[in-house]
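Support reply, case 0932

Customer input (verbatim):
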Amino acid sequence: MLLVALNLRAVVTSLGALLDEVRDGLGLSGTMAGLVTTLPTIAFAGLGALTPWLVRRVAPARVLVVAMFALAAGQVLRATTDSAWIFVLTSALALAGIAVANILLPMLVKQHFPHRTGLVTGAYTMALTLGTTVAAASAVPIAHAFGSWRAGLGVWAAMAAVAVLPWVPLALRTRAGARRSTPAAVAAPVRVRPARTRLGWAMAVYFGAQSLSGYAIMGWLAQLFRDAGYQPESAGLLLAGVTALGVPIALLMPTLAGRLGSLRPLVLGLTTASALAYLGLALAPRGAALLWVALLAIGQGAFPMILTAIGLRARTAEGTVALSAFAQSTGYVIAALGPLMVGILYEVTGGWTAPLGFLLGALAVQTAAGMAIARPRYVEDE
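Our regenerated output:
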């Protein structure tokens, strides 16, 4: 699970660090670049919604193997094409694999570590953040070392191929006995319907708003720092700094969320950090870049917090699976607006004031939803 988690954002942040080179190499417009950076949320929404249906019919290990093969193949193919549209399609293939794994990991944690959910969630979220950091920091140096942005994007396929290896024996063992050995939590019909509850929608809106900001940052922060006068390598390192500082936060946040009676202090603290970061980036992006990076990292702690809250706001495994699928698939529909709107606003205005104002508006929506999920209650009760 930790090996899989290492791969779940590298395909996104490596592109963010090399977006300028990819735009020049493939002739992408600002709007097309916005579409490419929006692809993660579109894929995560569509394929995430289908994942519970898939695992009720196919053993989860087999689904995960196919997902990781799709991730590896998509990364190789997009790094070798000269067509903008083939680049988009092969990126979508890679992201489809990530979308399925996004939903499978909380399910696998619930099945295999039911009494250590917070600890294991924190561990795989930390691994996810670590993979994000490494990709953001090293994509540009790798591209320069090999003389092409293609190497900076394609190298991560090897990491995906390594991650799939431990799952292949399990997938082969479950093939013959899948019908009789499918876990009850997966095979049983999902009777919990989060779409009919206020809690389910509040969770989806919070997940969507924080993902909107997260993917906008991953897709465009390096470009913002380039425009502020930083060299491409330095801009990539600053982007990597957001995720690097997020590693300990990702490990700590599930523990804090599990121990607090109410999530209100975390919601308000994360909002404050993000708001200060956006204002700082708008007013002085070069003057105090490290401070804004640190505040962004704290604010992005909303991601591990909401992943933990999914488990905290459901009583049963069935409820957790249903709430995870609904919150993530619906949330990523909302999140799809982030990179696309930032790209459009950036192209239209030629600056970063309007895009950052848009992110502040999304943060206000996130905070309101966060206050709605702060007090302890369960989706099954609604």
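We compared this against your earlier run and they match. Two observations from our side: Confidence is low (pLDDT under 50) at residues 176-190. The two ends are 32 Å apart (CA to CA). Please reopen the case if you see a mismatch on your end.
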